[in-house]
Amino acid sequence: MRCPFCGNVDTQVKDSRPAEDHVAIRRRRFCAACGGRFTTYERVQLRDLVVLKANGRREDFDRAKLERSIRIAMQKRPIDPERIDQMVSGIVRRLESLGETDISSRQIGEIVMETLARIDTVAYVRFASVYMNFQAVGDFDRFMSELRPQESPEV
Ligand SMILES: [Zn+2]
């Protein structure tokens, strides 16, 4: 695995252990060239997913991108980072089990919102407000009234 700091390809695994309730293997890596340390995750990938974007373009599904947008929505929320990893894995598993290789970005957005709505209302609203376009604002109220969060938000 190439070092993300200096580009050296010869990095060493210092520690490997199960993560996310044995869904992933977490490896701590060390680069002898620059002394950099970083972490990689090994996960099962059932299917190579392709995202159909609203503008008609296709691009390879990127788990890191999905995770980033969820972490942004979850910022400063009282949620264990490990829980977020599990959530992302759950979403990816759902996408893979749709049985299609091509998945629309809209479908992904809906699954993410559904998942967030069950876990954290504030994160859900943050994500939804970014994700949804103005045309869908009417539906947004309905979404909100249908929410049954497990914990009450502080905001
Ligand atoms: Zn390095």
From TrEMBL:
<keyword id="KW-0238">DNA-binding</keyword>
<dbReference type="InterPro" id="IPR005144">
    <property type="entry name" value="ATP-cone_dom"/>
</dbReference>
<dbReference type="GO" id="GO:0045892">
    <property type="term" value="P:negative regulation of DNA-templated transcription"/>
</dbReference>
<comment type="function">
    <text>Negatively regulates transcription of bacterial ribonucleotide reductase nrd genes and operons by binding to NrdR-boxes.</text>
</comment>
<keyword id="KW-0863">Zinc-finger</keyword>
<feature type="domain" description="ATP-cone">
    <location>
        <begin position="49"/>
        <end position="139"/>
    </location>
</feature>
<keyword id="KW-0547">Nucleotide-binding</keyword>
<dbReference type="Pfam" id="PF03477">
    <property type="entry name" value="ATP-cone"/>
</dbReference>
<dbReference type="GO" id="GO:0008270">
    <property type="term" value="F:zinc ion binding"/>
</dbReference>
<keyword id="KW-0067">ATP-binding</keyword>
<feature type="zinc finger region">
    <location>
        <begin position="3"/>
        <end position="34"/>
    </location>
</feature>
<dbReference type="GO" id="GO:0003677">
    <property type="term" value="F:DNA binding"/>
</dbReference>
<keyword id="KW-0479">Metal-binding</keyword>
<keyword id="KW-0804">Transcription</keyword>
<dbReference type="InterPro" id="IPR003796">
    <property type="entry name" value="RNR_NrdR-like"/>
</dbReference>
<keyword id="KW-0862">Zinc</keyword>
<comment type="similarity">
    <text>Belongs to the NrdR family.</text>
</comment>
<dbReference type="Pfam" id="PF22811">
    <property type="entry name" value="Zn_ribbon_NrdR"/>
</dbReference>
<keyword id="KW-0805">Transcription regulation</keyword>
<dbReference type="GO" id="GO:0005524">
    <property type="term" value="F:ATP binding"/>
</dbReference>
<protein>
    <recommendedName>
        <fullName>Transcriptional repressor NrdR</fullName>
    </recommendedName>
</protein>
<keyword id="KW-0678">Repressor</keyword>
<dbReference type="InterPro" id="IPR055173">
    <property type="entry name" value="NrdR-like_N"/>
</dbReference>
